[in-house]
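Technical note accompanying the year-one report. For the benefit of new consortium partners, we illustrate the data format agreed upon in the data management plan: each record pairs a sequence with a structure-token string. No post-processing was applied to the example shown here.
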Amino acid sequence: MKNNISEYLKSNGIKPSLQRIKIYEYLVKNKNHPTVDKVYNDLVKDIPTLSKTTIYNTFKLFMEKKIVTIITIEENETRYDADTNLHGHFKCEVCGEVYDFAIDDILIRKDILKEFEVDERHLYFKGKCKNCL
């Protein structure tokens, strides 16, 4: 975990308000690839002034500063991840959990994308997790 979230946010050009600190801390500690609703429901008890709009705006800022990535495995479900290193995601279609898994660089024929600039890479799998089999 990032030792001092306030300093980490500052070093990435983000003013570390209480809400921003708590939202980022939640992502780092839980690693549950939450939706905005999940973050809101889990944090509003401790931060009564928190709104879903604040969470959306915070995630937008975090993504602009490249300290959070967006995960869209399902069209109608947007999740967020504080781990910006290249890795894959597996979503269990039974329990709905999303798991990280390590990947080596994906082998793509070099000539396929030679005229393109890649800004993002995502790898998603769906199926049944070991607990639901």
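Partners are asked to follow this layout when depositing records. The beta strands are 69-74, 77-81, 88-92, 98-101, 124-127.
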